[in-house]
Amino acid sequence: MNVKATAADGSAARKGDQAERSRHRWIALSVLALAQFLVVLDASIVNIALPEVGAQLGMDTVALAWVITAYVLPFGGLLLLGGRLADRYGHRRLFLIGVFGFSGASLLAGLSVSSGMLLGARAAQGASAALLAPAALALVTQLFPVAADRTKALSIWAGVAGIGSAAGVLLGGVLTAAIGWQAVFFVNVPVGALVLVLIPMLITRDQIGTPSRLDYPGAAAVTGALVAMVGALSAVEQVGFIHPITIGLGATAIILAIAFVLIERRSPNPLVPLSVFRTRNLAAGNLAMLFIGAAMVALFFALSVYMQAVLRYDALTTGLTQLPLAGALVIVAGVTPGIVGRFGVKGTLMGSLVVLAGGLVWLAASPSDADFVRSILGPSVLIGVGLGAAFVTATQLAVDGVDDAEAGLAGGLINTSQQIGGALGLAILASVATARTAALEAVGMASADALTAGFSWLFLGSAGFAVLGAIAALRARRAR
After folding, report:
1. pLDDT confidence band for 16 (50 / 70 / 90)
2. Where are the beta strands (DSSP E) in 69-227?
3. DSSP label at 366?
4. Which of 158, 211, 398, 431 could form a disulfide with 391 if both were Cys (CB 3.0 to 4.6 A apart)?
5. DSSP labels for 198-217?
6. Are 353 and 466 in contact (CB under 8 A)?
7. Average pLDDT for residues 39-68, to the nearest whole number?
8. Distance between CA atoms of 357 and 396, rounded to whole angstroms?
9. Cα gap 51→67, rounded to integer Å
């Protein structure tokens, strides 16, 4: 009897330990997702505060555009290097360094008394985010090695990222109106401090990569290429496609990209082994995320401007109108694991992108005097449904089959795809919308109607990107 009792006690103790470890994993995921939320949020929360920033710091429209660009350039350009550094020196270590740098830079941004100080702080935020984001996703994949649990974890991850994108306008409006523009930066500081305290308690060990020489020439080439590419796409929005700055940055990006490929083919320890793109699911997931980012960033930009410039909503009301979209995104992201179990990752991704395209086409039909409930609520919910499932499944494909030694690289790749896609989509579709509006105003159409027609083309273009994402998903292997 004693032997049986001892065995039973041992079994109960093991189950208790497993339950405790599982609980720690999910709590750790929540903290990691909170940090990712800040990174995504910071790309959009500043938009509403820009007029007040310009008034207090004496920045004109061109200078204010650099408040966004100064964050996006180092973030998009350094993601691959950040992912590789995390693989080499430890995902937990690089994550904590990134959170510390991001929080400190946010504090400096909020304390800024000049445009130069603010732009420098924004660049530091972007560089820190490039360390934080790929390391965080790598930690998530390591915390949940079992496929079913990983799908649930990535659903939460994608839901939080989607909320960050949709909530930026709302939180920016509330904080700016209630406290001032500095609050959109100060809010990151206590949250970052909480993450820095909790993660070392929840993730006690770090996986350090095999000591090897980092591919510095490759790192310099790909970072320069990505920075030049994002810079060229940002320049399109400000000076157009044929301006010397745009052409020069575009040519630089192409030359450096070619140099990077040549370096990686000859390097004994490449920054990005080109063979990784032979993994069909990784390649399909990243290509799909490129188009998802292109559709999403252009959508949120246009939706915010349309509601304020055409429908005459104030900043807070504009933010509140994003709640149905964000709510649908979160709910669908939560149930996506069940959908994946039934239809597979590939089928779910393709279906979700078709739903997203349908919502965008519906939104494109909204008139200049649209009623929110009749014209915008329905497509917003449909868009949220499509984005929620698409984020989860594209991310899952992009990390499918990647071992722990390259988890940081996979995290850097999927974040880079989203950032480059967002910059590409916004540059192309904003130019199309602006040209359409200008052409209609030139023939005497009322400003509100011309703006609406321009945004209609933008929404249709975003739907086209969603369809291209669905086509890209065709390359993925069928896997549940």
Report:
1. low
2. none
3. -
4. 158
5. HHHHH-----PPPP----HH
6. yes
7. 76
8. 21
9. 11
In the structure encoding, which two tokens stand for residue 168, read together?
Answer: 């930026």
At 177 the three-state DSSP class reads helix
Residues 61/115, Cβ–Cβ less than 8 Å: no
Span 41-55, mean pLDDT? 76
* Count of helix runs (H) and strand runs (E) in the chain: 16, 0
Full DSSP string of 242-303: TSHHHHHHHHHHHHHHHHHHHHHHH-SS-SS-GGGGGSHHHHHHHHHHHHHHHHHHHHHHHH
d(CA 451, CA 238): 18
Region class of 270: left (phi > 0), else alpha (psi between -120 and 50), else beta? beta
DSSP character at residue 405:
G
pLDDT over 80 at 235, yes or no: no
The residues, any chain, with a CB within 8 Å of residue 26's CB and separated by 6 or more, are: none
Q: What is the mean pLDDT of residues 337-365?
A: 90
Task: Render pLDDT for 273-292 as a digit per residue (tens, 0 to 9).
Answer: 777 777 778 888 889 999 99
Tokens of 393: 């499944």
What's the angle, vertex CA 283, arms to CA 406 and CA 381, rounded to 5? 105
| Amino acid found at 11 | S
Q: Tally the residues of the chain.
A: 480
Of 175 and 450, more confident: 450
**Contact call for residues 169 and 47 (beta carbons, < 8 A):** yes
CB burial of residue 385 (10 Å; 0-12, 13-18, 19+): buried
CA 238/CA 222 separation, integer angstroms: 24
Give Cα 183 distance to the centre of its chain: 22
pLDDT bracket for residue 11 (50, 70, 90): low
Q: What are phi and psi of 206, to 5 degrees?
A: -125, 145
